[in-house]
Amino acid sequence: MAKTKILLKARLIVEDQGKILLLKQTKGQGGKYTLIGGTVEDYEFAKKALIRESFEESGLVIEKQNLHLVHTLHKKKKVATRIVLYFKASRWEGEPKPGEPNKFKAVAWYPVDNLPKGMSDTVRHVLKHYRRGSRYSEMLVGGQVIK
User: Fold this and answer.
1) In terms of Cα–Cα distance, which of 40, 89, 37 is closest to 68?
2) Which one-letter DSSP state was computed for residue 65?
3) Distance between CA atoms of 145 and 138, rounded to whole angstroms?
4) Over the stretch 126-143, which tens digit does the pLDDT of each residue have?
5) Is the separation of the CB atoms in 130 and 71 below 8 Å?
6) Is the distance from CB of 8 to CB of 14 less than 8 angstroms?
7) Nearest Cα to 31, choosing from 95, 126, 114, 116?
8) Per-residue CA distances from 140 to 63, 72, 121, 125, 137 (Å)
């Protein structure tokens, strides 16, 4: 039996006055709208990774005490499993701007009730569960959701 690789990721939900902050990927990265975040490196804890990713990807400065866990996604692929921790920022500093130009071409606020087309299935899934107050969800590759 093949061993499943488990990846730990952290993502950030930045919400302000009924709007949510999304990054627009470059075409080479898929061209989807996504949330700030990425892989938690072996030398990091999740909050530290998210603080780093937030600054690199959007220019926002966030302190550890202002990150609150709001959702956990268990996502299965054929040979990999991802555990994604979604944190909400209660405070941040700076104006969002796209960082990492090879990955992102824009960053903008979108009304939570009118999110853009072109969001990844995963982001759409998580935001739906987050808005319902659900703290945990599961997803199979291809968008199949386990309820």
Assistant:
1) 89
2) G
3) 6
4) 999 999 999 999 999 764
5) yes
6) no
7) 116
8) 33, 14, 11, 11, 11
pLDDT of residue 146: 52
User: How many C-beta atoms surround the C-beta of residue 52 within 10 A?
Assistant: 16
Is residue 90 left, alpha or beta, with left meaning phi > 0 and alpha meaning psi from -120 to 50? alpha
pTM of the predicted protein model: 0.92
Q: How far is CA 94 from CA 59, 62, 86, 91, in A?
A: 7, 9, 21, 10
Q: Right CATH number for 5-146 from 3.30.450.200, 3.40.1650.10, 1.10.10.10, 3.90.79.10?
A: 3.90.79.10
Q: What does the pLDDT read at residue 5?
A: 82
Q: Counting beta carbons within 10 angstroms of the beta carbon of residue 123, is it exposed (0 to 12), middle (13 to 18) or buried (19 or more)?
A: buried
Report how far residue 51's alpha carbon sits from residue 48's, in angstroms, rounded to the nearest whole number.
5
